[in-house]
Please model this.
Amino acid sequence: MILSLKKANRKTALWVVGIVVFTLAAIVSLQNLSADKQAKVDRSNAMQVTKQVVADNALQVSAPDFFTEYRLERDKVRSERSDLIRDILKNAKTDDMRQKAQESVLKMALDKQRESEMENLIKARGFSDALVFVRENSVSAVVKTSTLSREEVIQVADAISRVTGVKAEDITISAKP
Model:
């Protein structure tokens, strides 16, 4: 009797496992069929695209030019310098040190303002871009153009001289395309 119960339980267990396997197979089959229906595309109105489509408002990304990169670098250096001077101001032990640090801050601000003003004056003369570097007793300018005529050099030097008061012989002007 014990033997027949084990056989009966075994048959029942196999029967249940078979039903479960069959049910799982049916479910998987139905899911695949449903996915196939969703994946089908109505191609009756489809057309073939043979030419590349480019959006009208697409932005063209190009590498920054010399003028942009230099301005970024100049601003970075000024920012680092400004941080250093602020630290000196905070930790200044004497009034003389504090006074010199304040003078440095003012000079940096004045140089930045004058460089920007001169660059804008040069651009106002018809050049697409310019960089100006103010030194103690001289000024250098780089103008975005392939060549500079004598008249253009005189115009640029005049603009720089009026803003800085530096003599024309202490101004260097060069062209960079």
Summary: Residues 2-39 form the longest helix (38 residues). The chain is about 60% helix and 10% strand. The radius of gyration is 39 Å. The longest strand covers residues 139-144.
